Amino acid sequence: MIVRLLQILAIARTDLTLVLRDRQNLLWLFVMPLIFIYTFGRANFGDDAKTTEKSAIPVAMEDTLFLGEAFTKELEDRTWVGETHAEGDSLLEARGSWIVVPRGLTRTVLSGGRDSVEVVSKRGASARRAESYAWSARKAAIRVLLNLQGVPDSLRANGADSVFMAAYDSVAALPPLVELEVRSASRARPIPRGYLLSVPGNLVMFVLIVALTAGAADIAVDVRQGHIRRLGACPLSKLDIFTGKLAGRLLTSLVQILFLMAVSTLLFDMRWGNDPTALALLFLVYAITAATIGIFIGLVVGKADTAASLGVLVTLTLSALGGCWWPLEIVPDGMKKLAHIFPTAWALEGLHTLISYGGSLGDVALNITVLTLYAAAFAYLASRLLRFDR
Fold first, then answer.
1. Backbone angles phi, psi at 86, to 5 degrees
2. pLDDT over 80 at 97, yes or no
3. What's the confidence (pLDDT) of residue 52?
């Protein structure tokens, strides 16, 4: 038993070595996935792995006294942060829209007068962005005025001296009496975007494309050049040889998955959910599914070039329809049902459940079960086609 296991592992190790020696395979295993991940991640609504970054609102600061600085601080919220520029700064022209804090604002307001900040937009600038700036300016102005109401009138009469500013800062530092919590009333899950969409989608696609091109082509070469027939002369059963070939392709996929996970964590700050056991099991059954499909194609076609070409065609079809290029949440219901004919949709749905929505093993049990059935079906079909007389 141990000897047979060692022979199976020897077949797997040999196939893995042959794959890793080919420079073209290395390109599609490790380089191209990262290029696609970055490109799709930036195209699909930006970098979702860094949602804590805030966009800057440019502020032309003409008022050099206290309230101008206080207003800029109050612009900051979960989305925006004020970015101060001196009057006439050339960088403002490049921003399209900005907020102007007028000269003398502090003196005017503290003396009981009225003044206003203004949103300036260049011709052709985004009207939506300018409106966002205007709303932020209104909220900041209200906060400043409310804070001023908390400062005693006796201190306000002295103007913006150190005592007044200390009193204002103490009022501004008080926690709000009322907090607003906004939650969606919809039961629909938010659509993954940025790298949360790009990393799982391209990982699923490139695991499949390597298994269905290099994996299928290599098995076709084994058949055409008589490698399978020569292995049949060894003290190995057909099941042993098939298991060795399957293990070789499985090892290739697992090396690729681990590499892309590690690099995506470092470069794109990816997080992989809260259930590593479920994630590992999902990746494992998907890698086995991809490997069995690749072996099946190689045995059916029998020619390396044809098998690789067919593998590309099948991969692109399954990737597009399975949600690797765009989220299935945006397609019609009929397309969603069509997508779940393919293993890519089940794999991606499971990955999004674990990564984007914090799911656990129970939430992806159906996905793992369906992928296991795919793997079992193609393993059975491929094993029936594996013969020593070819």
1. -70, 155
2. yes
3. 46
